[in-house]
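[audit] Reproducing an earlier prediction to check determinism. Same input, same settings, fresh worker. If the tokens differ from the archived copy the diff job will pick it up downstream; this log only records the rerun itself.
[audit] input (202 residues):
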Amino acid sequence: MNIVFDFGNVLVRWEPERMFADLFEGDEARYWSFWRHVCPLEWRNRIDAGEDIATCIAEQQRLFPDYAEAIARYDTRWEEALTGEVEGMRELVQHLLDRGEHPVYGLTNWSMETFPKARRRFPVLQLIDRYVVSGDVRLVKPDPRIFRLLLERYGLRAEETLFIDDNGDNVAAAQRLGMHGIRFTTAENLKCELRTQYNIIL
């Protein structure tokens, strides 16, 4: 079985609230309104799909001038949202690589302006050298085309490939293409599912 890992909140923790803690001062309603209306998923996906970050931020600041400082932080303070490796995942990936029975790959939604910096910072990301980054190919999950590109680039068969992601929509998209899928929660739960569903013992 080929094993494909998402990166954010599977291998490294992504906690964007850390960027804005002092701005919203515990006002969760205002914070979530900011994500829904000022920097919504559609806008963030443009960045993950390879659009220039500075250009996207400037456009949004013109639309929402009262939030100009908060919007700017999506560029200037994004590294604060990467709060460490997900517990147990570096060891899990390393174990798979050491055994060599299940080839390991990556598939992530991430801007190519920021991904190289994150990869240098976190050893778990350096373990995987076969991967597809959305910002490089200008496609974002759950678009089926990015999954097909991964399979084609590395000569993988969908039915022999397991995709692991914390986002259920992305897992479902992979499954619709005939891939296996696991929604990630913790390293321990993943080990259990690998063992019980695929007889992969770590």
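[audit] rerun output stored. Observation attached for the diff report: The chain has a mean pLDDT of 95.
[audit] end
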